[in-house]
Amino acid sequence: MSYRTELTYALRLRNLDEGTIADIVQEVDAHEREHGDPRDFFGPPEAYAEQFPARPRSRRNLAPMYVGVALGVAWLVGVLALTASGLLEPPFRRDAFALWPALLLMAIGMVVNVVVLRTRPLRFAPR
């Protein structure tokens, strides 16, 4: 992975706004054009990102994870309610039928959250 991509991801994990991230990445890009490998000057991307103060997490950034967890809990409650009322009789153990899909939905929400943070394109701030 490129230094630029790793740095962008590390800065997003620190919850910096996109304009600040764009400025930092542009500075690194300019240094790379003039002097070569930015690792020699700035060090590892994670270490360079730690120089910038982290901001508190907004709930908007965690939306995919919250949706996945909510869907998982809804699935679990729904299946348990239907089996308790006798409307649903799975051909295998009720607990396994309810639990594994719920955990899968929760895990998908968490994975989507990480993928969105890592692959979202960097929007440069207008100058």
TrEMBL record:
<feature type="transmembrane region" description="Helical">
    <location>
        <begin position="65"/>
        <end position="85"/>
    </location>
</feature>
<keyword id="KW-0812">Transmembrane</keyword>
<keyword id="KW-1133">Transmembrane helix</keyword>
<protein>
    <submittedName>
        <fullName>Uncharacterized protein</fullName>
    </submittedName>
</protein>
<feature type="transmembrane region" description="Helical">
    <location>
        <begin position="97"/>
        <end position="117"/>
    </location>
</feature>
<keyword id="KW-0472">Membrane</keyword>
